């Protein structure tokens, strides 16, 4: 049975006030009001941004960051829930650190990290606590029958299905009804432009955009005419109902609540995992094009090279391996 999720929010025992102006975590807030301090928001441009920073209690911001400003008429920004499945491997911490330091710069964002593990690990928990990003830490082990075996090619079995579905359950069960929010599935190895998050924030149903370096192409993208999606530029299995990469869409949380049966199908045919969710939410004609009518690439399907640790393995066999107490 899954243990209770770790929610970094108002119940935090930490009491230091921190500024969260585009992710800055310098101690520059006093009684909930921003004040100038070396190394904080002023260092970015020499002056406070047009949107005032919001302050929260604790190192991670006391829950989802919210902020208003001229672009929202003073109303709170819709929260972006970034869902990241992750699993243990040599580059796991490096991937999560890189992603966290992108998310630090996004206002009104909450990071939902779901481990493929029977219990939360200290490595991921410690990283999240130190990240400065409001987060929820979940876990959901992949069943043995669909888990990749050693030597399996990466395309043989989908990864992250149970973890994304666990996040969907948490979002539907634990977030306030009627909350204006957007859900985005961000793998830990991709590269994200900050502009992407502001593009998706206005999502009403399902929004879409191009993804670079995917599907054997320079990019895949929805084709747009008259402000509507009319097709897809893709080369691999173009007959798919939604030939989109996981990084190429976001979903409004109210729509996910209104369609409680919509989920990722662990038995989906190769390449159809995204379609298994989206088909329960919208039709292709209802997709909302973003990124200048899907002409701007703001996310890239990059992958970190698997490190070769032959010397490490050799030293371990000799009892002289690297100190296991040092986290990498």
What would your notes on this structure say?
The protein is an alpha/beta fold. It has a single domain, classed as Spore Coat Polysaccharide Biosynthesis Protein SpsA, Chain A (Alpha-Beta Complex). It is 22% helix and 21% strand. The protein has 9 helices and 17 strands. The chain has helices at 42-45, 92-103, 122-131, 161-174, 194-200, 253-258, 273-278, 291-294, 310-317, and strands at residues 6-7, 17-19, 29-30, 33-34, 55-57, 79-86, 109-115, 135-139, 181-185, 191-192, 206-208, 211-214, 217-225, 228-233, 249-252, 288-289, 299-300. It has an 8-stranded mixed β-sheet, with helices on both faces. It has a 3-stranded antiparallel β-sheet with strand order 12-13-14, with no helix packed on it. Helix 2 packs parallel to helix 3. The longest helix is centred in the middle third of the chain and has 14 residues, at 161-174. The chain is globular, with a radius of gyration of 20 Å. The model is unreliable at 9-72 (pLDDT under 50).
Helix content: 10-25%
Alpha-carbon distance between the two ends: 29 Å
Number of strands: 17
Query: Could you list the spans in which at least 5 consecutive residues all have pLDDT below 50?
Result: 9-72
Largest sheet: 8 strands, mixed
Q: In total, how many domains does the architecture comprise? A: 1
Fourth-tier CATH superfamily name: Spore Coat Polysaccharide Biosynthesis Protein SpsA, Chain A
Provide the residue-averaged pLDDT: 82
Order of helices and strands: EEEEHEEHEHEHEEHEEEEEHHEHEH
Q: Any idea what the radius of gyration is?
A: 20 Å
